[in-house]
């Protein structure tokens, strides 16, 4: 399947608004709401109304709601509506000073789209990369033999076994005919990010005949930087030295030292002018061979050109590698500003000792934080799996610089977003090596446990992406190298499209731990508030206290159920006929969380806005109001509401001929409604992840009988329960496992997703810990679900060597992109059970200790 068809976050414009009269829609919404008001003691509707009037509690709720609708929604929270600009940054103080990059995180493995690559945090970085190929793979494939960028089609097992995000990392790569072990260590010193060393260890596998291996390492900069190259010589038989200078790094040297000479490697160097985004293709044009004397491909050895090259390559070829005998070489980068502080080169035994020290330090810190050795049934295999999963999330953190392409609805030619830089984790190095808005909030639930300073740096970079309307793009595609990995039709970001505001989950964790006091300043809170106001202004629903994801295509004829990509749940079933009068349950729950967090943040500053936001959060979390808008008595579930029917199917039909002379009858597959009379406004009967959001965000009162109903439904195998985790859509749903178009297989229609399972587990812990009639039931379900997830993910990891994007609900096997150590890495928090100390989000006042001014 091509990348174009499997890209999971596609851009769609809602170009064709519904032709229904909005007044008619609102009348039906009001009628349904009125019809659903409960009675008690079998009273008539009139008697029930009198009971409500006599109740001071209900009267006060009614008055509060009225006041909030008129005042808070309109004035405080929605804010003023200004002329929309796509590419004007918000007029607030920047959170990141690009001229003061943190030394600990200046250099890093920030080209995570490569099997191994380095760069530093600046707009014009010196970029470092590693390539290789063996001649056995070359003979089988003329176009896929050179390994460079992470690619699922290479079918390699690879990943970090250690990575602390700042000082060191160890990566293992298993190819067809060789194993690679890559070790990287950084030392802080001087004024320009310090020194670092990369050690490449290659071990040929035992094969019937000797297969030559070629290894490449390169340095690239946008501008000329090379001052001197000293190649292998009699005076220096094992070392190549390069001296260079850039504006960001000043003067530096690079030594490439061969640690193993017994295999008599052939060493070639090249200086030339390359583009970074095409370097993989262009280097192949520089290789030559001379069979039979020289059957392998090598670079034509060149001295430093006068044409001001911007790239240095070294190729090391093992002509007759010995099976199971390791060959290694070191790449030693040294900043001239560190010369006075450096006692010895970071190589040899000194490198070995440092690596052992850092590994030991990592292991101690890992156990202190996650305490896996104290958990039941937690052996060394499981702990290694958790350590590697965390390391792969951390090792996937990248740094991008450039301009996104953005457009308003209906805008044909996109604008260039303002130039910006982004420090962020990525969902998948092989398939999604760029920043995704709603993924990143989940990523940092784990990253913040490991190193809160990394999370704070990430948050600052993301919120510096705000434009003057308070919008942040859903996907951040910065620079030619990042854009080269994305099909062109998916590059443009549309300014009406949202994504779940999961950063509020991260910020809530930081608040609960009373950390990040240097983050929660007024400029940061103001940026967060502008982002919140953008949601509350652009994603509001048809009636007060309702919300609606934008971006659904009401005129689509090819989709079984028009996708809601902006919700993050893509093809999860919503109302079959998109209208402006839809009510989306999950977005309402996200806004409940967001309102609470904004209020808590302002309380830190003793700001007058505190009570306004907290009061609004209390109203959104009011269970009576939630039930009126989203509980279906008929289906006994929380649900979306909209113009809907289940009587839809995909059918192949003839395409009208363009002319009578056309010989061949063409056909296409489109959606057909098989029962028009069933299309009306109703609750959407598709039980799944969306139905669980009042549970996942802990809005439900612990004494609510609806909580009991949801808990019972969780264990129902005809709905979501499987031996491997909770599936995304009930087996009883009419769209379970159904393709959405002729070319789109099911995505959120049954598969098991770890981020949603994590949110359910976290909520079950919450309801198990607080007083209520269903705490024991929540605890039992929590234990069983956690066991199922751990057992299956470890089984698949041992079988495939990967953590996966999703898991099949019938077999438990991995599906989708891999390795996917984005939000699937939340399995580490599930293993550690760190959420057991979580506090209640809503329905009670949580006093906050003031820890900053």
Give the topology, please:
Layout: H1 3-6, H2 22-35, H3 45-54, H4 56-77, E1 107-108, E2 117-120, E3 127-134, H5 135-140, E4 157-163, E5 168-174, E6 178-187, E7 195-204, E8 213-220, E9 226-230, E10 239-246, E11 250-258, E12 266-272, H6 279-282, E13 287-290, E14 294-299, E15 311-318, E16 327-335, H7 348-370, H8 380-395, E17 398-402, E18 405-407, E19 415-416, E20 420-424, E21 435-436, H9 437-450, H10 452-463, E22 475-476, H11 480-483, E23 493-494, H12 503-512, H13 522-538, H14 585-604, H15 610-620, H16 623-630, E24 631-632, E25 637-638, E26 641-644, E27 648-654, E28 667-673, E29 680-683, H17 693-696, H18 705-714, E30 721-722, E31 725-726, H19 754-769, H20 775-800, E32 806-807, E33 814-815, H21 827-832
Parallel strand pairs: 18-23
Antiparallel strand pairs: 1-2, 2-3, 3-8, 4-5, 5-6, 6-7, 7-16, 8-15, 9-10, 10-11, 11-16, 12-15, 13-14, 17-20, 18-19, 21-22, 24-25, 26-29, 27-28, 30-31, 32-33
What are the main properties of this structure?
single chain; 853 residues; alpha+beta; Beta-galactosidase, Chain A, domain 5; Glycosyltransferase; 2 domains; eight-stranded antiparallel beta sheet; six-stranded antiparallel beta sheet; 21 helices; 33 strands; 30% helix; globular; disordered N terminus; disordered C terminus
């Amino acid at each position: 399947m091509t990348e174009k068809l499997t890209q999971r976050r596609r851009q769609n414009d809602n170009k064709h608004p519904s032709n229904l009269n909005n007044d008619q829609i609102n009348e039906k919404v009001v009628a349904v709401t009125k019809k659903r008001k409960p009675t008690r003691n079998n009273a008539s509707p009139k008697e029930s109304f009198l009971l409500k009037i006599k109740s001071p509690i209900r009267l006060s709720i009614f008055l509060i709601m009225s006041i909030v609708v008129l005042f808070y929604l309109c004035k405080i929270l929605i804010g003023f509506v200004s002329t929309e600009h796509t590419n004007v940054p918000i007029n607030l103080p920047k959170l990141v000073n690009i001229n003061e990059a943190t030394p600990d995180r200046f250099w890093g493995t920030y080209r995570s789209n490569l099997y191994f690559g380095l760069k530093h945090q600046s707009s014009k970085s010196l970029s470092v990369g590693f390539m290789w190929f063996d001649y056995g793979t070359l003979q089988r494939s003329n176009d896929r033999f050179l390994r460079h960028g992470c690619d699922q089609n290479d079918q390699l097992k690879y990943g970090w076994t250690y990575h602390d995000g700042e000082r060191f990392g160890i990566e293992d790569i298993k190819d067809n005919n060789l194993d690679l072990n890559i070790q990287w260590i950084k030392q802080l010193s001087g004024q320009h990010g310090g020194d670092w060393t990369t050690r490449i260890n290659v071990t040929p596998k035992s094969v019937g005949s000797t297969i030559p291996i070629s290894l490449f390492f390169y340095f690239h900069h946008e501008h000329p930087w090379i001052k001197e190259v000293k190649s292998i010589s009699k005076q220096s038989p094992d070392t190549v030295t390069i001296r260079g200078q850039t504006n960001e790094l000043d003067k530096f040297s690079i030594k490439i030292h061969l640690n193993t000479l017994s295999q008599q490697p052939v060493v070639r160097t090249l200086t030339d002018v390359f583009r970074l985004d095409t370097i993989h293709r262009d280097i192949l044009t520089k290789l030559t061979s001379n069979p039979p004397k020289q059957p392998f491909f090598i670079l034509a050895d060149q001295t430093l050109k006068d044409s001001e090259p911007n790239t240095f390559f070294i190729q090391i070829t093992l002509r007759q590698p010995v099976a199971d005998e390791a060959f290694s070489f070191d790449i030693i980068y040294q900043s001239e500003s560190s010369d006075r502080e450096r006692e010895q080169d970071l190589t040899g035994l000194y490198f070995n000792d440092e690596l052992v020290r850092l590994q030991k330090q990592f292991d101690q810190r890992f156990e202190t934080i996650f305490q896996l050795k104290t958990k039941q049934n937690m052996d060394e295999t499981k702990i290694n799996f958790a350590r590697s999963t965390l390391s792969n999330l951390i090792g996937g953190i990248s740094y991008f610089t450039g301009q996104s392409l953005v457009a308003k609805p209906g805008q044909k030619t996109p604008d260039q977003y303002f130039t910006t830089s982004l420090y962020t984790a990525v969902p998948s190095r092989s398939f999604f090596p760029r920043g995704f808005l709603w993924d990143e909030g989940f990523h940092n639930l784990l990253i913040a446990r490991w190193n809160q300073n990394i999370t704070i740096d990430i948050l600052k970079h993301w919120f510096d992406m705000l434009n003057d309307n308070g919008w942040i793009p859903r996907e951040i595609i910065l620079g030619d190298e990042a854009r080269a990995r994305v099909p062109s039709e998916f590059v443009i970001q549309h300014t009406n499209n949202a994504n779940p505001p999961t950063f509020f989950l991260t910020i809530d964790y930081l608040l609960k731990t009373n950390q990040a006091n240097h983050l929660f300043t007024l400029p940061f809170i103001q940026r967060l508030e502008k982002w919140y106001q953008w949601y509350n202004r652009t994603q509001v629903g048809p009636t007060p206290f309702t919300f609606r994801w934008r971006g659904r295509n009401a005129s689509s004829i090819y989709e079984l159920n028009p996708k809601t990509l902006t919700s993050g749940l893509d093809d999860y079933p919503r109302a079959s006929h998109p209208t402006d009068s839809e009510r989306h349950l999950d977005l309402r729950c996200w806004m409940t969380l967001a309102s609470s967090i904004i209020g808590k943040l302002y309380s830190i500053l003793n700001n007058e806005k505190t009570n306004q936001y907290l009061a609004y959060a209390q109203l959104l979390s009011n269970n009576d109001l939630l039930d009126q808008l989203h509980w279906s008595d008929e289906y006994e579930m929380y649900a979306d509401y909209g113009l809907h029917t289940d009587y839809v199917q995909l059918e192949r039909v003839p395409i009208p001929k363009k002319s009578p002379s056309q010989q061949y009858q063409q056909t296409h597959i489109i959606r057909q409604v098989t029962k028009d009379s069933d299309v009306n406004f109703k609750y959407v009967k598709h039980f799944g992840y969306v139905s669980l959001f009042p549970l996942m965000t802990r809005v439900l009162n612990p004494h609510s009988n609806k909580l009991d109903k949801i808990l019972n439904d969780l264990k129902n195998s005809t709905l979501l329960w499987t031996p491997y985790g909770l599936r995304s859509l009930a087996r009883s749903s009419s769209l379970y496992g159904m393709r959405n178009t002729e070319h789109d297989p099911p995505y959120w229609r049954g598969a098991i997703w770890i981020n949603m399972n994590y949110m359910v587990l976290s909520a079950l812990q919450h309801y198990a810990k607080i007083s209520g009639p269903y705490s024991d039931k929540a605890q039992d379900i929590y234990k069983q679900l956690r066991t199922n997830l751990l057992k299956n993910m470890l089984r698949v990891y041992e079988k495939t060597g990967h953590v996966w994007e999703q898991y099949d609900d019938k077999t438990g096997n991995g599906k989708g992109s891999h390795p996917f150590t984005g939000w699937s890495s939340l399995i580490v928090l599930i293993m550690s059970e760190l959420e057991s100390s979580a506090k209640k989000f809503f329905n009670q006042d949580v006093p906050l200790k003031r820890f900053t001014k």
